[in-house]
Amino acid sequence: MNSNEIIGFLERAYPPNLALSWDNVGLQVGHHEREIHQVGITLTLTPEILEEVIQKNIQFVVTHHPLFFQPLKRIDLSKPSGMMLEKLIQHNITVYSLHTNLDIARHGVSDELAKLFGIKQSQVMEITSQASLYKLVVYVPCDDFETFRSNMLGSRVGHIGDYSHCSFSMQGEGTFKPGEGASPYIGSTGELSKVAEFRFETIVHQRDCEKVIADMKKYHPYEEVAYDLFELSTLEEPEGLGRHGIVTPINLSEWEFPIQGTLKGNTDLKKVIRKVGVCGGNGSKLIQRAIDLRLDLFASAEMGYHDELLAKENDLTLLAIGHYASEMPMIHRLSEILRDQFQDLDMIMLSSKHT
After folding, report:
1. Interval 63-95: pLDDT, tens
2. What is the secondary structure of 165-211 as a DSSP string?
3. What kind of fold does domain 109-128+239-321 have according to CATH?
4. pTM of the prediction?
């Protein structure tokens, strides 16, 4: 298995362009073309976990927290960060990080928390991305259609909500006359050709249009491909930070939280909880949004003193569950997703440490 295949899958599922502007996601160190047999998954790559990676001969590590947040000005091999980088290069280990793009994307950190907390009708708390959808229409000779469709639906197209491989096709007849200098796949120069073709339609997200067109031309047998790309009035599903929705009404005193934490703000145990929000990592900046949404409870990693005062003043209950506990459910889920996708690889959950 090539490392680029793993990276390609991760970037389709959790596009890097969703990450916040200050973040540093994607390839941290390593090679796109390395042969991979073992993949390790961890929240943060620490010196202790790196020793485990080396011992288990893992060639590719997926982390949530990036190795580098700021541009490097120097690499001091006597410092822990420099020692780690030296060992990664010496042992030819690739590190790839999914951070705020994993927080923001559908089926990411906050969606996993929402499932744990039993949130129904889940919606994004703070939208950071909602781009246009496009419809791609292309015409393919019948003999090549099944292979073409299979290749296209295995790439970045055909995703509508929780459904994948969405497309439509119908058969018709295409005509063309190759001119001088053409090298036609079907027909002869200067002669009108009539060819049985399929019209293939599918959905493309705005961020993927350029790559999809390049893939389409690669998979299509014709020298010149006839296609259309239409911008739709429908926008793609919003993506962003945090999730909120409803739960079965329950007194605060009776709720057995799936992740234990510290109650802050309004801690009245007789309070009835109906509307709940969650955010993996530090979601303190979403507290005002939780108030605006009239949530009863908001769970996230860290809550400061002033956050607690603001919540109490606005009748909001906070549940501080800690950074590690808020993100680890998705790390375990990511391990399952990769194991299902790449069944020929050894997927190894690295030591669970509070990092």
Report:
1. 999 998 888 888 889 888 899 999 999 999 999
2. S-EEEEEEEEEE---TT---SSS-TTS-EEEEEEEEEEEEEGGGHHH
3. 3.40.1390
4. 0.80
